[in-house]
Prior knowledge:
Elements: E1 6-15, E2 19-21, E3 25-33, E4 39-46, H1 48-52, E5 58-65, E6 75-78, E7 84-88, H2 92-99, E8 103-104, H3 107-112, E9 117-120, E10 123-131, H4 134-148, H5 156-160, E11 166-174, E12 177-182, H6 186-198, H7 201-219, E13 221-227, E14 235-242, H8 249-252
Helix pairs in contact: 6-7
Amino acid sequence: MSVSLQKSRVVILVKAMPNPSKKYGETVCCAGVTREGVWKRLFPVRFRHLETKFKRWDWVQFEYGRPTSDRRSESCHVYEDRLRVYGSLKSPDERARLLNPLVSGSTLEAVTQGKSLTLIRPRNPHFFWKRKPDRIIEAEREGYKLASQQSSLFDKEIAALEPVPYTFAFSYEDDAGRHLNQCSDWETSTTYWKFTRQKSEAAALGHLTETYNEKYPQSGMAFAMGTVKRRPGQWLLLGVIRLDTVPSEVAAQTSLAF
């Protein structure tokens, strides 16, 4: 029986941390928004596609079918080998024009609208970190190792994937009150490793603290939030996004570019 596939094109906003999967190996949660402002959740996408295929703000075209075990309306079962990148959304003004209408006052507001993905503007955000216990680090390392051995398709990068030794988190406020969320943003972790390798661990933690507690809040900051399939009432912080609050008048006269 043939499978009926659909096509879509989204600008990628979410690349969450990899999770070892018995079925798919090392998979990640990716999500983006169409030109019309419709959220799409892409799954399964394996780790090797994060750096070699696309990054945040890329326009990605893909083919998908409806997942059989995920009832969330935004979820798409994608075919990895048909993912294609068509440029990126580079202008901060164009990003603001596309995404600001999608911002919710809180995840509770998003629930009333039937959404399982949304953006919020955190108020009084505070980024902090805490070192993981050694047993947690070792368990994550073993999980990545086992996942990397499941298929010959994985790159050498998979086998070398090392858990971040810190838990990153934010406390913040929105229209529903005060919250505390662990940060599952992939780019936060890659930034940590980049600065650690180039400079030092202290420099990496200092850079993230300055970025998330000073630079982003002053310039414009949004959280990409998403629910858990097995626990639809639980929301995770999947992406920390630099996003202007208001686009310029010049950008308002232009069209979104692919």
